[in-house]
Specification:
Layout: E1 36-41, H1 53-66, E2 70-75, H2 84-87, H3 92-101, E3 105-106, H4 117-126, E4 130-131, E5 137-138, E6 148-153, E7 156-164, H5 168-171, E8 180-181, H6 187-200, E9 205-211, H7 223-226, E10 235-237, E11 249-252, E12 258-262, E13 271-277, E14 280-286, H8 293-311, E15 313-317, H9 335-348, E16 352-356, E17 367-370, H10 371-377, E18 383-390, H11 391-401, E19 413-416, E20 418-423, E21 431-436, E22 439-440, E23 446-452, H12 453-456, H13 463-466, E24 470-476, H14 477-488, E25 492-493, E26 504-507, H15 520-528, H16 548-559, H17 581-589, H18 609-622, H19 648-656, H20 676-691
Parallel strand pairs: 1-2, 2-3, 3-4, 7-9, 9-10, 10-12, 15-25, 16-23, 20-26
Antiparallel strand pairs: 1-13, 5-8, 6-7, 11-12, 13-14, 15-17, 16-19, 18-23, 18-24, 20-21, 21-22
Helix pairs in contact: 1-3, 3-8, 9-14, 10-14, 15-20, 16-17, 16-18, 18-19
Length: about 700
């Protein structure tokens, strides 16, 4: 066969419409110096000098001031706690560094309360910048810090108000904010009152500096929930969710006016910039370093002071311990989650252990483990405690901690001494098949649970634990981890923790044979959309062959085809009363599929990859999203000569759209039988591509 028949000879005309005028400006706004520049950071978590670092915040502040801009520097919270440079000084080192940078204002995030409110009040007196929060009050509703403030920027006045997440009540140790409140029910009203006050005081622009975030688990206190409830904001600088908004996001307020939402990610991987020029607001991210040497020297000095304590080797590991966030300790069992749970159970002698995934903050690489690394894993100074708890409340805790799964949640329970399944496709009783040391959970039995003092008093919403008094206290989490590795494991984390130990199964579907399958996410998609299901209640059989009848049925279901009117067929092997009969005839009538011969369809015959490509291409033609006119692409599969002529167009189109792709060895496998798992992936890709906005040619 002529190799050039693998792609059609193409003459493609690309028309460039130079007469059109576009309103989009593609420019590097990071280096543009507007009359007013707001530099902003969020969720630095005391990562003072990795990526850009505070020295670059000062460097860019000086740069814009040198260009004639009036510069304000703002932080949206979670700055003064996290790593030893912060924790060993209870935040004072970070305040000194931020003073040197020249911050204008900050709003406290939930982790800024981790040393307790009394300590934050003391630190606020050391700050040469304002600590703002409109909704953090004492019991008399009096703001603990300034609610808002007006700043002069050139010939303009910029009003800034602070907002702290109501989640702080459970996302720091609740004892840290005992006697105070975050006024979640009055949040919008308190914010609106400050907007109105700033307007009355003569603000030209109003900026909300909030630590609310956009995570699903933060509903209904997200920035995206609040903005539509108020009027008068121009900009909302956000934190908490570690979201990176490269050019910001525009939302509508209660009156339909536009509000620019900005957030920079985390740990100073970028510095946010808001440019204000008249009534124009632009958001961008700065990712280029521009270090100030004085701030760098101050950071180096602070690091040198604590370095001897950090460098002490306390253990070693032969395997990498996974403390990633998502996917990781907030979404699934990891080997570091197992190790942490085992440390709590070992040091306390408890029946079971549970620790929140959000409290595990970083990964440990292979090699020596220093105190600094251990402290970075457990940076919050929490203690190991025990309680006596009923099996019913233990089950309630697991259901609560996994309520956001498969989405990430800081409360996700990493465990020891128990195993469980979380069936994420269910709305109730999602946690099932709980065993305690190999025995089914007894709801009436009393168990000794080891946890951390954050969750024990209701942190991350674990209120079912808070009703139990502590029965024991066993030192800090980082100390427990060190002692367990030293004494319980002989000083080395070895291959026992090479992988997660099958304590937690996150079930995206009811099928037990896809829990760890590479196609599990796509299988969830086809299951959720009721396109095709398992071969039994518990088995999907992902590696079984996909049949021709099943594939055209899936396409018919995607299309919403009404097949009840199809009662006759020319195919002698198609039973029109079967589940697939109408779909086969629908697909045949609409030129989506043909038979294997004039009167044989082969409904139960496994479908090959090239057949699937052709049928999917024909379906795209049917819905007018497939090939029109002369076109082609060049394929680079190593087995091009094995693709049948009749399949060339289909393979090209399916490859162009990335519905089907080649194998790792570079082949396409045209006559290879497509599996049910492969079909789920192909269908998921197709659905995602069809749902995406059309590209502008």
């Amino acid at each position: 066969m002529n190799k050039y028949r693998k792609y059609f000879c193409v003459i493609m005309t690309i028309v460039m419409l130079f007469s059109l005028q576009f309103t989009f400006v593609f420019a590097d706004t990071a280096a543009t110096a507007e009359p007013i520049v707001i530099l902003h950071t969020n969720d630095v978590h005391s990562k003072v000098d990795s990526d850009l670092g505070y020295a670059s915040v000062k460097g860019w502040k000086d740069y814009y001031e040198g260009k004639g801009s009036a510069v304000l520097v703002l932080d949206a919270g979670d700055a003064i706690h996290g790593f030893p440079i912060a924790n060993l000084s209870q935040g004072e080192n970070i305040v000194e560094i931020m003073n040197a940078v020249g911050y204008t204002a900050m709003t406290p995030g939930n982790h800024d309360f981790n040393y307790g409110t009394a300590r934050l009040l003391a630190l606020s007196k050391l700050m040469k910048f304002d600590l703002l929060s409109a909704n953090f009050t004492d019991t008399s509703k009096t703001a603990v810090f300034s609610a808002s403030k007006l700043y002069t920027a050139g010939d303009k006045k910029v009003g800034i108000l602070g907002i702290s997440t109501p989640e702080t009540a459970t996302k720091t140790n609740p004892l840290n904010v005992q006697g105070y409140q975050f006024n979640e029910k009055e949040l919008a009203a308190l914010v609106q009152a400050q907007i109105d006050k700033l307007k009355t005081d003569g603000a030209d622009y109003i900026v909300a500096l909030g630590h609310l975030g956009t995570d699903q688990e933060s509903m209904p206190y997200r920035s995206t929930d609040l903005i539509p409830q108020v009027t008068g904001l121009d900009v909302f600088i956000d934190g908490h969710s570690h979201t990176t908004l490269e050019k910001g996001e525009v939302l509508k307020d209660k009156a339909g006016a536009e509000v620019l939402l900005a957030q920079t990610g985390t740990q100073l991987k970028a510095i946010g910039k808001i440019g204000i020029d008249g009534d124009q607001f632009t958001a961008s991210l700065i990712t280029e370093p521009k270090q100030d040497e004085m701030v760098k020297a101050l950071i180096d000095e602070k690091k040198a002071e604590i370095q001897p304590a950090l460098d002490k080797v306390v253990a070693k590991t032969e395997i990498k311990l996974d403390g990633n966030r998502d996917p990781g300790v907030r979404t699934q069992e990891t080997n570091l989650g197992d190790l942490a749970g085992d440390a709590l159970k070992w040091i306390s002698g408890a029946d079971v252990a549970l620790t929140n995934g959000g409290g595990i903050r970083t990964t440990i690489e292979i090699g020596d483990i220093t105190y600094g690394q251990i402290n970075s894993v457990f940076p919050f100074g929490n203690l190991v405690v025990t309680i006596k708890i009923t099996g019913a409340d233990l089950l309630a805790a697991l259901n609560h901690g996994t309520k956001s799964a498969p989405a990430a949640s800081g409360g996700f329970p990493q465990v020891a001494g128990m195993s469980y399944e979380v069936h994420t496709y269910l709305t109730e009783s999602r946690v099932q098949n709980v065993t305690i040391n190999g025995v089914p959970l007894d709801l009436e039995k009393i168990y000794t649970l080891a946890t951390n003092d954050f969750t024990q008093v209701g942190g991350d919403g674990y209120t079912m634990l808070a009703k139990y008094d502590k029965t024991g206290e066993f030192g800090a989490l980082d100390e427990a981890l060190v002692k367990y590795i030293e004494q319980g494991l002989g000083g080395t984390v070895d291959n026992r923790y090479a992988k997660a130990q099958n304590r937690i199964k996150v079930m995206l579907t009811p099928y037990t044979d896809v829990v760890t399958h590479w196609a599990k996410d796509s299988i969830k998609t086809v299951y959720d959309q009721k396109l095709f299901t398992g071969v039994s209640e518990e088995s999907f059989q992902p590696n079984a062959a996909m049949t021709r009848a099943m594939f055209v049925t899936v396409l018919g279901r995607i299309n919403g085809a009404n097949v009840t009117g199809y009662t006759e067929t020319e195919f002698t092997d198609v039973n029109m009363s079967s589940w697939y009969g109408g779909y086969v005839e629908w697909a045949n009538e609409n030129a989506i599929v043909t038979g294997m011969s004039d009167d044989i369809f082969g409904p139960m015959t496994p479908i090959t990859r090239e057949q699937m490509a052709v049928i999917l291409t024909n379906y795209c033609k049917y819905i007018n999203k497939g090939p029109v006119g002369e076109w082609a692409i060049q394929l680079n599969y190593t087995d091009l000569d094995k693709i049948n002529d009749w399949a060339s167009e289909g393979v090209m189109f399916a490859s162009l759209k990335a519905y089907l792709s080649g194998y790792p060895d570079g082949s396409f496998g045209p006559q290879t039988k497509a599996t049910r798992a492969e079909t789920a992936v192909i269908v998921s890709r197709f659905l995602a591509e069809q749902a995406a906005p059309a590209a502008i040619e």
